[in-house]
Specification:
about 300 residues; five-stranded parallel β-sheet; alpha/beta
C-alpha cells in the first residue's frame, strides 16, 4: 500500500498511451489506503479492486464476473504475488519479478559513516528479507558504519524488521582494490547501487549490472524511491544481469512490417531457398520458388 508505487507503475503506462489501467490493492485493517487512492486519482486510474495476493494475479490474468482480464501485469508484491506472476506468464505479460529490495553501497574514507548507515537502514526497514551490502577499502570506515548502524537502529520505528534484515542479509565487505569492487558489484548485480565515493567516475563505466546507480554523496537511494525521475520498480536477485527497471518501453509492443517488390524477392529469395533446403523445410523453399519462377 505505497502511493509512490502507484505513481511508478501508472505514469509510464499513461505516457505510453495505455487506454485501460487497472489497480489491485488489498485492504489494510479493512480499509483502502487513502494515500494510494489519492495517487490513483491524480494519475487517472478509475478501475480499482480491493484484492491482493495470488488471487489478484489470477483475477487479472483470467478474468472474473466483475474483473475483465488484462494483457499485462506490472508491479511488485510479496512472495505470493511474485510466484503467481511467474506461474501466469505466457497467459499474460509481466514486467519483472521484483523483490525483496536490495542496496549495495560503495564508500571510501571521504564518505559520511552516519549517512551510509542511514542508507543501509532505509533499505533494511522494507522487509526482513531485504539485502544491504557495504563495500569499502577502508576498514576503519566499515567499523564506524557498524557503530552507527547500532546507534541509529535504537530510534528506528521499524527497528525489529531492520535488525532482522541486517542479521539475515547484511554484509560488510572489505576490499583491497577498485577491480575487486567492480567484480563484486557486477556479480551481485544489485537493485540499487550507491557509489558514495569521491572519484566515482573512475569505476562507474565498468559497472555493467545494476538496476539503478546513485552517483556521489548526495544521491541517496531513498530519493529514487520517490521523485528523482527514475523508477523504483527494479530488477532484484541478480536479474539486473539481464533486465532493466520498469519504464515506458514495458508498455510498448513492436510490430514488424515487410513489403517486398518483385525485384526484392528475386534478390533475397535464392538465399532463403538455400537455407530452407539445408534445414529440410522444402515447403518454405517452394513458397519462394513459385514467386521468383519466370514464365
Amino acid at each position: 500500500s505505497l502511493p509512490s508505487t502507484v505513481l511508478m507503475n501508472s505514469i509510464p503506462a499513461k505516457i505510453a498511451g495505455v487506454k485501460r489501467i487497472v489497480m489491485v490493492n488489498p485492504r489494510l485493517k479493512n480499509k483502502q489506503n487513502p494515500g494510494v487512492l489519492y495517487a490513483a486519482k491524480k494519475t487517472g486510474i478509475k478501475e480499482i479492486y480491493s484484492i491482493g495476493g495470488a488471487q489478484a494475479v489470477a483475477a487479472l490474468t483470467y478474468g472474473t464476473k466483475r474483473i475483465k482480464k488484462v494483457n499485462k501485469i506490472v508491479g511488485p508484491g510479496n512472495i505470493f504475488v511474485s510466484s503467481a506472476k511467474k506461474e501466469v506468464f505466457g497467459d499474460v505479460g509481466i514486467d519483472i519479478i521484483a523483490g525483496p529490495s536490495e542496496i549495495t553501497v560503495v564508500a571510501d574514507k571521504f564518505s559520511n559513516a552516519d549517512w551510509i548507515a542511514a542508507d543501509l537502514l532505509a533499505q533494511a526497514e522494507h522487509d526482513t528479507n531485504s539485502q544491504c551490502i557495504l563495500i569499502s577499502k577502508d576498514k576503519n570506515f566499515i567499523n564506524r558504519v557498524k557503530t552507527s548502524l547500532i546507534n541509529q537502529l535504537k530510534d528506528l520505528p521499524r527497528k525489529l524488521i531492520a535488525k532482522k534484515s541486517l542479521i539475515l542479509n547484511g554484509i560488510l565487505i572489505y576490499v583491497r582494490s577498485d577491480k575487486q569492487i567492480i567484480d563484486i558489484v557486477n556479480m551481485i548485480a544489485p537493485e540499487h547501487l550507491e557509489l558514495n565515493i569521491k572519484n566515482y567516475k573512475k569505476i562507474v563505466t565498468k559497472i555493467k549490472n545494476a538496476g539503478s546507480i546513485c552517483l556521489g554523496k548526495y544521491s541517496a537511494m531513498a530519493i529514487t524511491d520517490y521523485n528523482a525521475g527514475t523508477n523504483h520498480i527494479l530488477p532484484t536477485n541478480s536479474s539486473a544481469k539481464f533486465s532493466s527497471g520498469l519504464s515506458v518501453y514495458d508498455f510498448y509492443k513492436k510490430i514488424s512490417y515487410i513489403n517486398l517488390s518483385k525485384k526484392g524477392i528475386e534478390t533475397l529469395g535464392p538465399s532463403v531457398i538455400t537455407l530452407a533446403n539445408f534445414e529440410g523445410l522444402e515447403g518454405h523453399a517452394k513458397s519462394i520458388k513459385l514467386r521468383i519462377r519466370r514464365k
